[in-house]
Amino acid sequence: MNLLVSAVGMALGVFIVVSPHSAAALWGSERLEKLAPPRRALFLRWYRAFGVILCLTAMLFAVDTTAFR
Known about the structure:
The chain has 69 residues and is an all-alpha fold. The chain has one domain (2-67). The protein has 4 helices and no strands. Helix 1 (2-18) runs antiparallel to helix 4. The two termini are 14 Å apart.
């Protein structure tokens, strides 16, 4: 079960990193449309950083699950 959760977390993280605009639009971030273009770029940059952190956290969780039983 932990590996399944890790796989989902890594998949979501990679999706956010590859396409942050599509990911934000998919999860209904209406704030994105209301932001000015410079602020939108900053929002997407931070959203991409969130994707990287999510993916790395899921990887560490998978390693912890498999290595330290």
